[in-house]
Every structure is written in structure tokens, then in C-alpha cells.
Amino acid sequence: MGCGTSSKVVPELPGSSFHPSWGKGVGRESCGPLQMGQGEAGHGGHRGTREAAVEAAQKMQVARYRAKFDPRVTARQVYLFFIRYDIQALIGRGSFSKVVRVEQRVTKKPFAIKMVETGVKEGREACESELNVLRRVRHCNIVQLIEIFEAQDRVYIVMELATGGELFDRIISQGTFTERDAIIILKMVVDGVRYLHSLQITHRDLKPENLLYYHPGAESKILITDFGLAHSGNKNGNWSMNTFCGTPEYIAPEILSRKPYTNAVDMWALGVITYILLSGSLPFEDENHMRLYRKILKGKYNYKGEPWSNVSNSAKDFIDRLLTLDSNHRMTAGQALNHPWVMTMAITSPMKNLQRSISWNLMLRASPHSQCSRSARASESHHSNGSKHTWGKNKTGTLG
């Protein structure tokens, strides 16, 4: 199976299980082997014609599959890829994919290309999930799909290249960071999430590593990336989810409770991100996953230590309304954009510089003693720049 439903997708070649004597059904579910002698009574004069039609249809089906897997066809896709793009550098690697920086030969514009090995189940599932989302979305704060090239066991996904680095690298490098700066960032991220949710898409792995600056300039936009765990419903129109997945520190309590959940899990993750953005620390943290999950299920966190004494009550209320155990009472993306902190804080409030305390807390996390291993799929997150700040351990669970 290829990655999604695009006409470019190469379907799986039916293996030895496909046989010319199988029934009339064309597609994945056949009717089983044709039993000779069944239905022959009273149709002797038509049997030869019917069998000839079935055989002709089967030959056409086999020809279509062979054409799509013809080495000349897949080779042409790869040839077009290398003719169009010049590979410049490896910028990320995962267990079944790698991300490279390329330059379009004609325009000289830089792009990122994610090369996914689809011969393995995990790579194929992640590729399908990501492309099912990227083909549907067009928003200024979501990484944009440019085009796709497909070979038999590999898919080349061409995307926007984010060159501005990760969120917290930018905070550490600048001299000041205030609540106003945090609001500017969050408005972009929440608006992107609002758009995804309007399409019934749930990201399921929102975290700082997946929020990248588009360019190094001060006015750069933020891009939401890495849709390898995203969910966009099923054929029956069911938008609830059951899969246990995500990055531990950002997993919502309803996922840990093994209950059906909704896109409200993204809003919980945004609460965690906001807490980190204003403090440089995690609200729930433990090296042991079981202890970490118990803390999340209790929903107990605090605003002790620096810089919380300099953070407004309105900002804390914003976090509290996201880190709510009952997902039905959690703010939606639209409500978050209309929260008083977001609506009025950027204009009216005194702006205290939180940068020193945030940077100190970030540096403590980056020390060898506290450094955690980067998420397996975060390392392949589009256009990683090798940040030293890790905000989650390995992802948990599989797609489902």
C-alpha cells in the first residue's frame, strides 16, 4: 500500500494469493475462487462467454498492477526527482526516514525532502498518516506540502523548509522574552490547531520540537510540523480515537486512562507548551514513565519558583483552562484565541522580562545530568537543527 489516496500512489502488487481462477471481484476483497459447476445449470450456452469476460477483466487488472510497478515507471519518478532537486545536506534522521535540505535547480529555492522507507510497516503507516493530512491542509502556520515522488519502497515528500530553528533556541538567543512575545507565538500555533480541528484533524504530538521558525528573521512565522501521529477520522466518519500514542510529557489524561478521546488532547498539549514557554520548565516531569503518568492523571502542578512570581494571573488562568482533567471543560482552540490573556494582554499589560529565568531553566534541562533522549520521530521531524533542548522522551504507541 502506498501513502494515501493520491493518483501518484503505487498500490501493493497482489502476491502469490492472486490467481487467474479467482472470482469476478476487482479490488481488495475478492469473492474467492470460482467453483466450477456452480451456476452452470440452465446457462450452458453462456458459460463460455461469461468465463471469457471474467478472464479478460482479470488480465486487465493484472496489467494495471504491473504497469504501476513497472521499474520504468518508478524509475521515471526517481529520475524526475533528481533532475528537479539538488540534495545539499542531511538535516534529520529517523528509524525509517531521513530529511534532507535540497535546492530546486531552476528557481534555486530551498526545500526540505523527507525520504520515507515504505517497505516497512511503521514507515508506511507514518507516511500514510502524514500525507493524509498534508494533502488536505493549506494554512500559513502549517508546513506546506509541495509535491510527492514515489518509488516502489520509498516516498519523497517535498515540503517547505523551516530555517529559523526551534522555539527555545530563539528564546535563549534573544535578550528579552515577555508575555507579549509568548502570546504572539501562541496565537500562531493555536490558530493552526484551530484550522486543523475545523478539518477534524488531530495532531496528537504537539510539542516545542515540532514548532519551528520559518526563517531566522525577527518577524518569522511559526510552522507546525511532523504529522506522523496525526488522525483524520476513518471511512465511517468516526472522529473519536483510541490509540495510545504521543510523547509522554504531553499525553492527555484521557489517553492514559485508555478512554476514547477527541481533539481536546491537542489542547492539553498546548497547555503544557504554554507552561514551558513562560517558565522553561515542564508542569509534569519524572524520569519514570509510570510515575509521570500518575502525576498527569492527578493533574497536579504548581507555579512555584522563578519566573512565576512575575507571570500574570491571566496567563496562569489560560494554562489552567487547558490543563483541565475533564476534556469536556477544556478550552477549544477558538476559545483559547478569545481568552482575555490573548485578547488584551498584548496591548495593556506591563511586560516583565522573563528571558533570564526561562533560559536558566532551559539550560538546567540541557545539562548532561538531566538531558533526555530525543523522541525517535522528533529526530526526523522536518528540518531539525540539532537543538540541545529536549522536551519529551520517546514517543509511545503506534498508529491506529
List keywords for this structure.
alpha+beta; 2 domains; 400 residues; 37% helix; disordered N terminus; 5-stranded antiparallel sheet; Phosphorylase Kinase, domain 1
- Whole-number mean pLDDT: 78
Task: Return the CATH topology of the largest domain.
Answer: Transferase(Phosphotransferase), domain 1
Give the helix proportion (percent range): 25-40%
Number of separate domains: 2
**Unreliable sequence segments:** 1-44, 62-70, 369-389
CATH 2nd-level architecture of the largest domain: Orthogonal Bundle
Cα shape: globular
- Backbone CA Rg: 25 Å
CATH superfamily descriptor of the largest domain:
Transferase(Phosphotransferase) domain 1
Number of strands: 7
Strand order of the largest sheet: 1-2-3-5-4
**Number of helical segments?**
12
Question: What structural class do helix, strand and pairing data support?
Answer: alpha+beta
Order of helices and strands: HHEEEHEEHHEEHHHHHHH
The N- and C-terminal alpha carbons lie at a distance of: 16 Å
Short overview:
This protein has 400 residues and is of the alpha+beta class.
Give a verbal description of the structure.
By secondary structure, the protein is an alpha+beta fold. The protein folds into two domains: 1-12 and 48-161, 2-Layer Sandwich (Phosphorylase Kinase, domain 1), CATH 3.30.200; 167-380, Transferase(Phosphotransferase), domain 1 (Orthogonal Bundle), CATH 1.10.510. The chain has twelve helices and seven strands. The strands form two sheets. Strands 1-2-3-5-4 form a five-stranded antiparallel β-sheet. A hairpin with a 5-residue loop joins β2 (97-104) and β3. α5 (179-198) runs antiparallel to α11 (340-348). The protein is globular, with a radius of gyration of 25 Å.
